[in-house]
Write a structure and sequence with these properties.
This protein is 74% helix and 0% strand. It is mainly α. It has a domain of 220 residues: MetI-like (MetI-like fold, Orthogonal Bundle). Helix 4 crosses helix 10. It is globular and about 85 Å long. The chain starts with a helix and ends in a 6-residue tail after the last helix.
């Protein structure tokens, strides 16, 4: 297993390099510049030129990429390794590390809710295939899966924050209640619901299909022919094997939650990594944009690796 993990990590090196090159080119070839916001009649051309030299934007793209890449992947790195923000001059690493806990809260709770809700729903649909409950859940799952994240978030805010005044409109904590767990959970409710609804819709359909495939296997028929109770057949024999394909979904859901969290955090002004990335894009803050994109790319690679390793844990037949 250790050899397999090391081999996969080595194979990830060219992928990371490719992500770095593509991301850097997209960011720097996109119309607009971090200097544009300073181009006003009150700012002299000399000042603009000094800013361009300060940010290193006067150099060619290959030179800029070489300097950024060599410094970004230098280990061990200090808080200046990822560069400085063009917006406020703060170290990019410090800005990102300050936002990660908020994103972990949002994505972690969303994933927990997804697992708790989606798996039982999927099992229920498989056991009662084509029943009214299956058809009703399938209908709502299809609707939930089709809803855009931003639209669902806005509707939840309009309904439960503006009209009913049950939950806060934005933010992570109320004024003066930083560190209050109950207040944090109160602010988490609508963002988590936004992410979880869409994830539950997809997970439940996936779980239903996996469970149906297992229930049709010969060993399940054998277990039932021996007179075992349906609950034991379903939860002891079928569910464990049906969970094996879900491992793939789990590995891919982590980076998907991060991308979905960017939209959700923006809608609810949640002070997480996704919200920081969106702000950086609008402000052409190249160092912050590149850092957030690279974190997302690494998360995809690690998510796939985690899924492959988890296969061997849940299924003894798989070895590496």
């Amino acid at each position: 297993m250790a050899t397999y993990i090391v081999r996969r990590l080595i194979q990830a090196i060219p992928i990371v390099i490719g992500i770095s090159v593509i991301s850097f080119l997209i960011v720097h070839l996109t119309p607009g510049s971090p200097i544009d916001k300073f181009r006003t009649p009150r700012v002299s051309p000399e000042t603009i030129n000094n800013l361009i030299r300060l940010y290193g934007l006067d150099e060619s793209i290959p030179v800029q990429f070489g300097k950024w890449f060599s410094k970004f992947w230098t280990f061990p790195f200090d808080n200046t390794a990822w560069g400085y923000s063009f917006t406020d001059g703060l170290p990019v690493r410090d800005k990102i590390f300050a936002r990660i806990p908020s994103t972990l809260w949002l994505t972690g709770v969303s994933l927990l809710v997804t697992v708790i809700v989606a798996i039982p729903i999927g099992v229920l649909q498989a056991v009662r295939q084509y029943s009214w409950s299956d058809k009703i859940i399938t209908t709502f799952s299809t609707i939930g899966y089709a809803m855009p994240t931003f639209w669902l978030g806005l509707m939840l805010k309009q309904t439960f924050s503006v009209q009913l005044n049950l939950f806060p409109l934005f933010g992570q904590n109320s004024f003066g209640k930083t560190g209050d767990l109950l207040d944090l959970l109160w602010h988490l409710t609508l963002p988590v619901t936004t992410l979880a609804v869409i994830q539950v819709a997809g997970w439940s359909r996936y779980m239903r299909a996996s469970m149906l495939e297992v229930l049709r296997q010969d060993y399940i028929r054998t277990a039932r022919s021996k007179g075992l109770a349906d609950s034991r057949v379903i939860f002891k024999h079928a569910l464990r094997n049906a969970m094996i394909p879900i491992v793939t979904l789990l590995g891919l859901t982590v980076p998907a939650l991060l991308s979905g969290a960017a939209i959700t955090e923006t809608v609810f002004s949640w002070p997480g990594l996704g919200f920081l990335g969106v702000q950086a894009v609008t402000e052409r803050d190249y160092p912050v944009v590149l850092a957030t994109v690279m974190i997302g790319g690494v998360m995809v690679i690690l998510g796939n690796l985690l899924a492959d390793v988890a296969y061997a844990v849940v299924d003894p037949r798989i070895t590496y």
